[in-house]
Specification:
alpha/beta, three-stranded antiparallel beta sheet, 6 helices, 11 strands, 21% helix, globular
């Protein structure tokens, strides 16, 4: 089986101006620091970031926002990063706030090839603006469209050389679903093991979804 272990330079070759990026993590935990650093070093601009939150100004994807490299954020909350709020308020960056469960389902739908998901969350609020309302068996739902991105960035605790991934504790939040919806899926793994060393029952993202794995433990 072919190895999917790549260098940081190989990963950075996928970064360019204007791309959309899905990322795993919650307040930076589960977001791959080495890949975010490579994205910063690439000088790519006008990025669209899609994930649960924007961490902190000096942590995770928050560093990209502080460097003013982001055109739009799609997230569930931005309260831990004052710079995200500031740029949104002065019109320097667009922010689309999506309820957390809806965001996860939209990403899953993108990975599964679905045309969207129906949810009652947001009915009668600003969340409904510009969206279709669909009645099913007498109940109203909002049609939420699927999300995909040019690149998905993951942080795994372990990977084998084929690209099968395990996550540790709360890193197993958005990472598995994000892995479904990137045109290119790149992971940082704290540890690389030989093919066959991982118990198949513990693999949370199969190698078939992963295009490249960078080894590194910086956090």
């Amino acid at each position: 089986m072919q190895s999917k272990i790549i260098s940081i330079a190989d990963a950075a070759a996928h970064f360019r101006d204007g791309i959309s990026i899905l990322f795993g993590g919650f307040m930076g935990v589960g977001t791959p620091p080495l890949l975010i650093e490579a994205l910063l070093d690439s000088n790519a601009r006008d990025l669209v970031l899609i994930g649960n939150d924007t961490a902190f100004p000096d942590v995770g994807v928050g560093q990209l926002i502080s460097a003013k490299r982001v055109r739009k954020v799609v997230a569930s909350h931005i309260g831990t990063n004052a710079e995200t709020g500031r740029q949104m308020m002065v019109g320097e960056m667009e922010v689309e706030l999506v309820p957390q469960g809806t965001l996860a389902e939209r990403i899953r739908a993108g990975g599964a090839g679905l045309g969207g998901v129906l949810t009652a969350t947001g009915l009668g609020t600003v969340v409904e603006e510009g969206k279709s309302r669909i009645n099913v068996q007498g109940k109203d739902f909002l049609l939420e469209l699927p999300i995909r991105a040019d690149v998905a960035l993951l942080h795994a605790s372990r990977s084998d050389r084929a690209g099968n991934l395990q996550y540790r504790l709360s890193s197993r939040n958005f990472n598995p679903v994000v892995a479904l919806a990137g045109e290119v899926v790149l992971a940082q793994a704290d540890e690389i093991v030989e093919i066959g060393a991982l118990d198949p029952d513990t693999i949370m993202t199969p190698a078939a979804l992963v295009d490249g794995v960078v080894e590194g433990t910086r956090s």
